[in-house]
## 1
Amino acid sequence: MIPNEPKITPELVAEHGLKPDEYERFRKLIGREPSFTELGIVSAMWNEHCSYKSSKVHLRGLPTKAPWVIQGPGENAGVIDIGDGLACVFKMESHNHPSFIEPYQGAATGVGGILRDVFTMGARPIACLNALRFGDPKHPRTRSLVSGVVAGIGGYGNSFGVPTVGGSVGFHPRYDGNILVNAMAVGLAEKDKIFYAKATGVGRPVVYLGSKTGRDGIHGATMASAEFGENSDEKRPTVQVGDPFAEKLLLEASLEIMAKGCVIAIQDMGAAGLTCSAVEMGAKGDLGVTLDLDSVPTREAAMTAYEMMLSESQERMLMVLKPEKEKEAEEIFKKWGLDFAIVGKTTDTSRFIVRYHGDVMADLPIKELGDQAPEYNRPYAEPKKLPVLDPQSVPCPVSIVEALQKLIGSPDLCSKRWVWEQYDHIILNNTIQRPGGDAAVVRVEDGPKALAMTTDVTPRYCEADPFEGGKQAVAEAWRNLTAVGARPLAITDNLNFGNPERPEIMGQFVYCVRGIAEACKVLDFPVVSGNVSLYNETNGRGILPTPTIGGVGVLDDLSKSATLVFKSEGEEILLVGDTKGWLGQSSFLATVLGREEGAPPPVDLALEKKNGDFVRSLIGQGLTTAVHDLSDGGLLVALAEMAMASGIGAVLKASPAGISPHAYWFGEDQARYLITMKSADLPKAVAAASKAGVLLRHLGTTGGRQLTLPGCDPILVSSLHKLHESWLPSYMAGELAV
Amino acid sequence: MKAAVLVFPGINRERDMARSLQLVSGKEAAMVWHTDRELPKGTDLVVIPGGFSYGDYLRCGAIAARSPVMEAVRKHADKGGLVLAVCNGFQIACEAGLLPGVLMRNARMKFMCKEVHMRVERSDTPFTRRYNAGSVIRVPVAHGEGNYVADAETLARLEGENLVAFRYASADGVVDPHFNGSMNAIAGILSEKLNVLGLMPHPENHVDPIVGPTDGRRLFESLIETLEAA
């Protein structure tokens, strides 16, 4: 029907990532053979990345509601009420595949995409975070990937002008062929001025705004829905190129036309670009959309309809404007030097029609394109339970101090200063707690309200027990927010897994999601947005299951927030929570003994809640001087972090009887916090703990310039600090024999 | 004080600057768009803030330096009006010829966001009268291209005429020539008439005690004092 179009063959269908039965389903849906452009459109809408076809059935089990949730999953980002008429808009999204192929641009456009998701909803971004996972430091590509990804995240965020305030970086050989780049953005909006994708009104102009369309990123979403093989470098042309300058202009222009009341509906062009944004706007509003591609601003000559519909050129938006405000909106966009073009209109036909050069290139049912994507309940294997490791069976071949030195100087637990000093983390003048603490704290406007935010997951726990690992990721985020004194409100989840067509991977996914759901329920910590990234594998080997949790909490008064830094000498150090000495899947086991074994620590959610609520209440009453959550590396690593952050040492009591010292100092039992307080406040805290039924253990006192453990030579905090700070810069400078 | 903060496409610290000016002076700054050909009537301080004007795409500051508003800034400076140029603003001021020299990529080739120390070289200027000469202050930097470079003659003139305002230093005041590669550890310089200051660090981010240290505050207090005395 259209001249010069490739003939649809089974090979062409397969190249588009569609299974034969999926193609057949589409053919039946439209009642004829599709055109080439239509094949492109359906491949964009029905790939895993856009359709969630393997994950949807399980995601329905996640709790998404609470009185403070304004918008849950399904929009560009989640929205929660933070009081005083304000809303927090946030989401996390992966850019794993592109970042592995082209680290700088992959990571940069990951940041750009998530920022757009947030300001599309009418919010001004106030902070970015990220969660990065790289391969073995020994792997020949790791160093250049770290360098490129960090530069890309900084390059975009710094120029755009949003502080990157927190995140996590980890290394494991299972990410050798498939790194993870998860970017999170947090924005602030007036609660009654949130903008949505749903189009309303027939015959309204559909307006294209932002940068011009080029040939970059075609099939990016399809690439992100397939595994990598040997030739993944050949996919470099599918990676988009970021332009943070254009995005900054797009932000200012978009917020300006929203403030002027010009916008009815808005959708950013992210994955699958023009296709996905137009279909979503129409489908959500029960309207048809007709696009006229002759009006689309292009930066390259002779682009085909197929290319325009699948381009993932960055920094573009699609909007439905109020007709009477069209001129005003256009002037604002011209002022910011951005393209503004009417490229179509809404219709009452429920059809998605694409015209180009006088031909109808596509004519598809719009609802079905979105809603009737294939949905799979893929077979999944129940993960095998690993035996609980008896701490008595784990030797400690080195002294406690030597083990501590090894841990705090290891790739996973060393200081990530080399990374976050490349991110502007102070711009906007609201960063109260900078990177390096349990959670970042960002002031809301002129205060006293503040938001706390964090990203967390322990992939080796998820690998060993997906259900407990999923619970732990949520609990850890909740705990980190609690440790700075915030009331945890909601999460965004970024679920990174391998190939869902393999039952054991699907099993990891299903059980992680169930664990997340369970923890969210008990902790009253709903999921408001998220992203699923599957097919993270290379040559048939999947990554560690990595459901990254981005948590957000609120502090009503930022002067009542806590930091992990020891404040002065002669203060009491207390441990909240119970220590059994859980060494299975611990950092100690992995780093000191080179073993990844056993069941991970179980998460008692009721206990998490009880202990966390207790700690938050102490912070609120001003009884604590420092607070730190316990996680990787356990008690002694956390203590060392508090000492290193301050330069102040501590004198510690011996480990209790009945537990081996290394299990006590390095065990990773959950639901624990370290707190310090003035001696005079101790009786109040003890009374409160006994009333709340919380275990409180006195560990020692702060003071001096060294850490003193019974039976060990004291160690200078400054020498620990040097070890902690040196690994990453030395590694990146190529000075380490790894 | 009647401050005008310039806004170019891609500038991103204009809000930080306006907020700090407001915090210290109690007065609202005017935001001036890059296509304006005149400054608001009565402007006694022009601030060129930080950011990535025009994406830093050609050369940092090169495109912004040729904006219509810069002609008005040049006239203002020629008449002895005060100009504070921070970070990208410093780069723009150099490109516009308000200050000599150029800012190159940091010696270690990376963007750096951290707190640094700088030594105040003189306290007899409109920007530094509330500091003591030789004192060390703590300020944050956030730049990838802050490596100050000038030809030998210019450098000799700057040093000879005592136009270096700030140098990167250790906490105890020992000059640090290795921070970002800047010649003579220069963090900020003054124009001959002492009415234009360009510096890479961000005094506007160290003003509010709720956020952190406040060593940047005295720079704004100096300006207020200067303008009130005038």
## 2
Amino acid sequence: MLLIECPWCGLRDQTEFHCHGEAHITRPLDPDSLSDEEWGSYVFFRNNPKGLHYERWEHSHGCRRWFNAARDTVTDHVYATYKPGVAKPEIES
Amino acid sequence: MNRYSIFSLLRNSVNYHQDWQRAWRSPDPKREYDVVIVGGGGHGLATAYYLAKECGISNVAVIEKGWIGGGNTGRNTTIVRSNYLYDESAGIYEHALKLWENLSQDLNYNVMFSPRGLLHLAHNVHDMQEIGRRGNAIRLNGIDSQFLTPAQVKEMVPFINLECRYPVMGALLQPRGGTARHDAVAWGYARAADAMGVDIIQNCEVQGFKIENNTVTGVETSRGSISAKKVGCVVAGHCSVLADMAGFRLPIESVPLQALVSEPIKPILDCVVMSGSVHAYISQSDKGELVIGAGSDLYNSYSQRGSFDVIEATVGPVVELYPIFSRMKMLRQWGGIVDVTVDRSPILTKTPVNNMFFNCGWGTGGFKATPGSGNVFAHSIARGDMHPIAEPFSMYRFISGALIDEGAAAAVAH
């Protein structure tokens, strides 16, 4: 069972959390000017790396707040968790 | 290829089975092929088989990182069905089911296809509405589908507990659905493809693609460089990694999916029972083991292991629905990595790289489609243009918006 550190609550069981996929995807600033390719890319196409992955998690059965995590998708090791709005940490993987 | 028959069995029994021919060769890779298939699972081997058999292209190599059928082909719960909601899905899965029905004869290899009937349970009003909608859609597509009352379910599965925490309100039955022997599918396709000249190259990892002027010209492997006029990537669990090597992204995320197998017992369950809303499906193998499919973990992972809470969430409802299984021991449990698309439908597609084709994204339910997927993918590669059945499954549907939104793509609720 994974333990994940919620930036607000501390170490908790993974079952308290929900993952919501890739983090740091910037919402289009000018949606009206986007082409179909750009919309498709924004909504559906994802980085799906084997290794270091930056992703969004929600402490859904706890404080219900969102945060970001840097996790290795092969080992499930969580390198860091950090609050939204914080720049993603550089990780040597 | 020596054909398998009662006579070859008798002939070899005289020699104490010492003289059986190897089922397929183990050749060194040639310098160049007309088509290189990346991935020696069921879908990849089927693609090679139909390329040789129906498209007249036998100068084909299947390149496999490990051993054939050692990936998700060997990890799934062997269920075969075609009871999907949308016309596009009905097209490809029913095409597959029709090929399943004669596959053992076609391959001269017993894939143990057993159309034993497949039940899909409904546990609440929403489930009843879902099977009502889907069942009628399936019938409109000319595919067999029957609505069952709880009493009829009880007749098929006498030990089911209808009045439990997950009451059974009805069910959808596909009588032609069932199971097949997953390993035999890989071995049968490998043997039949090999007999037509396809080179099956195991323990050979693709490390990169040779791409000139945005056109693929070959693959770089752990056993050297291999040129190819066309490349078909048919991998599960790693298609994003391959796409990354080729320089584009796919609308796919990879997650672990678990299954478990019990100790063998005498025959008790003679159909497949799926249950979408409680994330559990169950059948009994010919060896007597209960084969139980669990849900997937909802985070990206290549770890090939899932969480314990997913197993708990699966065996809990199984024990509730089938109290007779409550003291059975589970012998094995495993996780495989599945490539999941947002609409839970697969991707069979041309790619931004010319002459490179991808067949991937089968998510939690690709095994059932193996023959159909390989068949239409082979024709697509041969023609250089997607087969009409494969056409709707292009990766570009995520740009056009023409998604094939299959909630029924697996027994797990989405």
